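User: I'm putting together notes for a lab meeting next week and I want to include a structural view of one of the chains we've been expressing. I don't have a solved structure, so I'd like a prediction I can at least talk through. The sequence is below, exactly as it appears in our construct file.
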Amino acid sequence: MKCVLLTTAYLPPVAYFTKLMAYDQVFIEQYDHYQKQSYRNRCVIAGPGGPLTLTVPIIKPEGGKCYMKDIRISDHGNWCHLHWNALVSAYNQTPFFTYYQDDLHPFYETRYTFLLDFNEALCHRLCELIEIAPQMSRTICYREAGGTPGVDDLRGRIHPKLDCRQADSRFTPVPYYQVFQDRLGFLPNLSIVDLLFNMGRESLLVLQKCIV
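Assistant: Thanks for the context. Below is the predicted structure for the 212-residue chain, given as structure tokens.
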């Protein structure tokens, strides 16, 4: 059985979803410490002017480091409204935005207390839309890097600051249609919603081609 260890992620990038397909069992780490500028609470989409980062504001418990499972979502700045408007602005001209918008909009109208719960619910819905059914579960304790034989630890490999082609030898970005491609060129490893809104059910085929 092939197993992988991943961090939680908000609207994860394409590379993240290839792991959900390629492994028999996926463990989502909930006892790691929150790290700034990671996919844990941010995603990157294709805006009209180029890559656009959307960040979910969080509340950390007082007193030093804290587990991811304890990170709460802040209501600061009316972020749900801003994120949804950004998605509409970026993707309302794509072939499949109208088809999928009613599946995703409710996540921006429902208040979630914890980031991990929000990410998990959103990820499961995206899996349903892409028509994959990964076996996912949360860790029950922190796993040291390399400390679990037979489990590929990719917690630090899928990160906004890393070149996905260099950090992960088992992932190759495969170009697909993007609505702003004539202006921006192809932008690899964006949020999975970029693939879904542009390619619809063919998203599954693109993901399969990305797996080395």
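A couple of points you could mention at the meeting. The beta strands are 3-7, 25-29, 42-47, 50-55, 58-59, 72-73, 136-138, 151-153. The CA atoms of residues 10 and 190 lie 12 Å apart.

User: Perfect, that's what I needed.
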